[in-house]
Design a protein that fits this description.
Largest sheet: 3 strands, antiparallel
Distance between the termini: 48 Å
Number of domains: 2
Strand content: 15-25%
Shape: elongated
Oligomer: single chain
Strand order of the largest sheet: 1-3-2
């Protein structure tokens, strides 16, 4: 990259961050949780129409990415380099990063059903673990089960080839509305929840969508999916 191009690129990115409304939006995403367009507009204290142009500028500069789920549009930082740059700027400004405080009841926040798959903190940790351990990998807007993942899931009685033959999506990132990070949706998410229920690792609450981690659940999830300690 020549010096002139570097200068103009840096100035363009700095200009996108420099606007107070956009800076508020970006800082609110530093915790790794996604936000809806409405929430980010409220954070920036601007109207929805004004926020739309700000979102376009941030996306053009590669600072945020958009996830569309049903009627909702979620934004999150595009990658870890953006977070590192923002944290460095906050350090220079001598101000702390904002803290995300979910308002969802604790039972639902920890584990619950989302249609036919698991959601909540537990599900997000499973999602992150399978992605980090390369059981699944990103493929366009969905996830693809790797060869390693297929073998390990087969050991748990899950036939990945059978899942891919279903008419629904095999696996995709489903945005968790309390954690604001993805959990696993699709046929894989459904069969994983069925397995967790069948083996008694989680149990349904009688009067809500909440799921309860059983005494032997953590050991079973850790043994099968490498899930670490839980609350």
């Amino acid at each position: 990259m020549d010096a002139h191009h570097a200068d103009t690129s840096l100035a363009s990115i700095a200009g996108a961050i420099a606007d107070p409304a956009r800076a508020k939006m970006l800082c609110s995403l530093l915790d790794g949780h996604a936000r809806t367009a409405t929430e980010l507009a409220a954070v920036a204290e601007i109207g929805a129409s004004t926020a739309s142009s700000h979102f376009s500028r941030l996306r053009e500069q590669g600072l945020v990415e958009l996830m569309v789920q049903g009627r909702h549009r979620y934004y999150r930082l595009a990658h870890s380099k953006v977070a590192a740059a923002l944290e460095a700027l906050l350090f220079l400004a001598d101000v702390p990063a904002p803290v995300f405080e979910p308002s969802t009841p604790s039972a639902l926040r920890y584990a619950r059903t989302c249609y036919d798959h698991c959601a909540g903190e537990l599900a997000v940790r499973l999602h992150d673990g399978l992605l980090a351990s390369k059981w699944i990998e990103s493929h366009e807007r969905d996830y693809r089960v790797t060869e390693k993942g297929s073998l390990l899931l087969a050991g748990l009685g899950i036939d990945v080839q059978a899942l891919t033959r279903q008419r629904r999506r095999t696996a995709y990132p489903c945005m968790d509305w309390s954690e604001r990070s993805p959990h696993i949706g699709g046929a894989l998410g459904a069969v994983m929840l069925a397995l967790m229920l069948k083996r008694g690792w989680v149990a349904r609450h009688l009067d809500s969508r909440a799921l309860r981690l059983t005494p032997g659940g953590l050991a079973g999830l850790s043994r099968s999916f490498g899930l670490g300690s839980a609350k």
